[in-house]
Amino acid sequence: MADMEETLMLGVEGLRKTILHGGTGDMPRFITGAKVTFHFRTQLVNEERTVIDDSKVTGTPMEVVVGNMFKLEIWETLLCSMRIDEVAEFWCDTIHTGLYPLVSKSMRRIAEGKDPVDWHIHTCGMANMFAYHTLGYDDLDELMKEPKPLYFILELIEVQQPSEYNRETWALNDVERLKAVPVLHGQGNKLYKLGRYQEATQKYKEAVVCIKNIQTKEKAWEVPWLKLEKMGNTLTLNYCQCLLRMEEYYEVIEHTSDIINQHPGNEGKAFYLRAKAHMEVWNEEEARQDYTRVLDLDPGMKKQVKKELGVLSMRMEEKNLLDKAKYKGMF
């Protein structure tokens, strides 16, 4: 077991390591694609050593895949200095902790059973944060405003080589992710045709998550980013088609509006799906406006739109008759 004094770590500045409990066996092989499972506790560097996060409290250990561009790159460096069952405390200066609040937010959302990706918000995490000025957790907002040094206490549980575990989509690298997108897209389309809408949404969603992951490494609004955005929008609209069948009309309006607001002028299908959703929730005016936009963008849809507007008029008449009858009964 290494001695208990602080050792400067791996020649990286702004880091100090103290081993609290020695590990066992040889150094594990931390090769690209290895999955590392560990518990972590994050504390402020103050007298109280205020705990920010503790994976043992939520009960679920954390997993990262080596070489997979985990948002908090420094964790990979720290873990690669450890043996199995070792517990070590790392003091990390602010140069390494700036992104911690964003990572913490994702981990907390997963622990709360929410979708960590917030994937329908089309901007990446950083841009979102500046737009809303809040991560939804007061302590993380504080840290975001003013990054501080942090203590990470890590306990290494397991290191699995790439061949030893089933790699889910999130564990893929970007090349593999890009290859996964058309496969997931195709699976989603097949399930949609079979009327298995719930399962289809999962495939589309997974593909969108792959794209969003790759997109974070590209410069916004440049050609590679825009290509990915276009792919993402196509998948999101397929997802919306499933939601229409599942009668989740307000969610359709939310997703399609996101796309329309981000990319005005070239999203005929988004207007069409939003019009259909508006029609289902009796927003007559909005539905008519969206159908008009569909025709502006794609005159070839004239026949289809005419039919939809006929259905809309008929449904509004039925609703008005029903409303009249209802009110008649009341008075």
Class computed from helices, strands and strand pairing: alpha+beta
SSE run: EEEEHEHEHHHHEHHHHHHH
Mean pLDDT: 85
Distance between the termini: 85 Å
Rg for CA atoms: 25 Å
Q: What is the name of the CATH architecture of the largest domain? A: Roll
**Discrete helix count:** 13
Strand content: 5-15%
The global form is: elongated
Q: Number of domains in the coordinates?
A: 3
Major sheet description: 7 strands, antiparallel
Uncertain spans: 1-6, 116-132
Overall strand count: 7
Oligomer: single chain
**Percentage of helical residues?**
40-55%
CATH topology tier name of the largest domain: Chitinase A, domain 3
CATH classification class of the largest domain: Alpha Beta
Protein name: Aryl-hydrocarbon-interacting protein-like 1
GO molecular function, one term: peptidyl-prolyl cis-trans isomerase activity
Organism: Muraenolepis orangiensis
Domain AIP/AIPL N-terminal FKBP-type PPIase: 33-157
What this model shows, in words?
The chain is α+β, with helices and mostly antiparallel strands and about 325 residues long. The protein has three domains: about 5-165, Chitinase A, domain 3; about 170-245, Serine Threonine Protein Phosphatase 5, Tetratricopeptide repeat (Alpha Horseshoe); about 265-315. It has 13 helices and seven strands. It has helices at about 55-60, 75-80, 95, 100-110, 125-130, 140-145, 175-195, 195-215, 225-245, 250-260, 270-280, 285-295, 300-330; strands at about 5-10, 15-20, 35-45, 50-55, 60-65, 85-90, 150-160. Strands 1, 2, 3, 4, 5, 6 and 7 form a seven-stranded antiparallel beta sheet that branches. A hairpin with a 6-residue loop joins β1 and β2. α4 packs antiparallel against α6 and α9 packs parallel to α11. The longest helix has 29 residues, at about 300-330. The radius of gyration is 25 Å and the shape is elongated. The N and C termini lie far apart (about 85 Å). Residues about 1-5 and about 115-130 have low confidence and may be disordered. May be important in protein trafficking and/or protein folding and stabilization. It comes from Muraenolepis orangiensis (Patagonian moray cod). It holds the Pfam family PPIase_AIP.
